[in-house]
């Protein structure tokens, strides 16, 4: 749908208060019509603050928000407010972890609320709501109240309610985080289908790599209020430049400086990758936990490998494998089988050697 572009350039300053440090959010984003942008980043990065500004719930210290060619927010550098469209008039739908349905209304009445608020006649609003409940796969539960629905069903009703208001843009804040493993994939899939079908411009805040992979065209990584990485989802996850995205993507990331063709890490470790790194250039080495072998004695190999001694810090379940987290700056995770954990006697505190083939280490200049 042309014209539903969302552009924002916002700054939010929060002064230090007792117990909290000062915080500045300074970020630009441009989401094309029908595009989905995932905003990821560590706790306190400013993701919720950004969404609140886009939704009109928080007035920025300065900046603009434009949606479909309309200025929704405009605060000039002197703090003068030129536009401050209230949340319900912005053409923006908000869906968070908590579905926030009206408890005394049925599923159908909840969904009909949007069309009614837009001035639709009751019969028309109800027919519209029934079609949306159909679209999210809940045609039989129209007469149920929220308390009679599962968490996943409530979230699907909330999605139908958000879309029934025909927003120009949808803001999703961890939309499946509160759902259990049985419901999250279904709701994620529904979100994908409905966002694509309606061509709704979407900004998604998430901690979950699957949300970003399944839903987002592009990813913006926020850290301490600033964008540290931005690009197509596949490219950002394949070549993470910051530890948060690397952890999100489930890979090891060692940042450092080029030395003798390798990457010299903060803890002195040298990591050689597929391509030589020019001396003195900032670079990142990226490798999968499955590419890391764990040994109890120093291994001797013919092919060029990176080998270093370290200590097991923790063992973590990672699907069918066990993630062996080892000390260092940064920590490196190796995926091994449960049988190997037993055979090698791995547990926190045990000294080990790690090895990873140079051909398994991707090198990215930063
Ligand atoms: N209402 C508020 N009043 C004062 N400070 C706040 C408020 N909300 C958030 N902050 C602070 O602003 C900063 C950014 O917080 P924000 O909630 O936007 O981060 P986030 O990336 O959404 O984090 P999380 O992933 O933990 O939800 C933090 O330092 C936080 O402590």
TrEMBL record:
InterPro entries: AAA+_ATPase, ABC_SmlMolc_Importer, ABC_transporter-like_ATP-bd, ABC_transporter-like_CS, Mo/tungstate-bd_C_term_dom, Mop_domain, P-loop_NTPase, Transp-assoc_OB_typ1. The keyword Coiled coil does not apply. Residues 4-249 form the ABC transporter domain. It comes from the Bacteria. SMART domains: AAA. SUPFAM superfamilies: MOP-like (SSF50331), P-loop containing nucleoside triphosphate hydrolases (SSF52540). The keyword rRNA processing does not apply. Keywords: ATP-binding, Molybdenum, Nucleotide-binding, Transport. Residues 301-365 form the Mop domain. One of its GO terms (biological process) is molybdate ion transport. It holds the Pfam family ABC_tran. One of its GO terms (molecular function) is ATP binding. This is Molybdenum ABC transporter ATP-binding protein. It comes from Cellulomonas cellasea DSM 20118. The lineage of its organism: Bacteria, Bacillati, Actinomycetota, Actinomycetes, Micrococcales.
């Amino acid at each position: 749908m042309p014209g539903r572009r969302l552009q924002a350039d916002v700054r939010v300053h929060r002064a230090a208060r007792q117990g909290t440090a000062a915080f500045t959010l300074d970020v630009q984003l441009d989401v094309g019509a029908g595009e989905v942008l995932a905003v990821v980043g560590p706790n306190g990065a400013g993701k919720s603050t950004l969404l609140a500004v886009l939704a009109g719930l928080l007035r920025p210290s300065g900046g603009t928000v434009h949606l479909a060619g309309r200025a929704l927010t405009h605060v000039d550098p002197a703090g003068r407010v030129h536009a401050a469209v209230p949340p319900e008039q912005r053409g923006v739908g908000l869906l968070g972890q908590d579905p926030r349905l009206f408890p005394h209304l049925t599923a159908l009445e909840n969904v009909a609320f949007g069309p009614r608020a837009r001035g639709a006649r009751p019969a028309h609003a109800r027919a519209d709501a029934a079609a949306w409940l159909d679209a999210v796969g809940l045609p039989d539960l129209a007469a149920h109240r929220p308390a009679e629905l599962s968490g996943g069903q409530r979230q699907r009703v909330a999605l139908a309610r958000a879309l029934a208001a025909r927003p120009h843009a949808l803001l999703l804040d961890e939309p499946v985080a509160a759902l259990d493993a049985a419901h999250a994939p279904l709701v994620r899939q529904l979100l994908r289908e409905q966002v694509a079908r309606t061509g709704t411009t979407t900004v998604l805040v998430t901690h979950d790599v699957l949300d970003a992979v399944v839903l987002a065209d592009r990813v913006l990584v926020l850290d301490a209020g600033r964008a540290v990485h931005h690009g197509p989802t596949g490219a950002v996850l394949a070549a993470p430049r910051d530890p948060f995205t690397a952890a999100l993507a489930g890979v090891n990331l060692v940042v450092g400086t080029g030395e003798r063709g390798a990457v010299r890490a903060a803890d002195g470790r040298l990591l050689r990758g597929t391509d030589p790194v020019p001396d003195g250039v900032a670079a990142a080495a990226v490798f999968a936990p499955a590419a890391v072998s764990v040994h109890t004695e120093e291994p001797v190999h013919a092919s060029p490998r990176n080998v270093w001694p370290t200590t097991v810090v923790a063992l973590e379940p990672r699907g069918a494998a066990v993630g062996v987290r080892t000390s260092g700056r940064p920590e490196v995770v190796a995926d091994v089988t449960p049988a190997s954990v037993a055979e090698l006697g791995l547990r926190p505190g045990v000294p080990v050697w790690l090895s990873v083939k140079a051909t398994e280490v991707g090198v990215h200049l930063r």
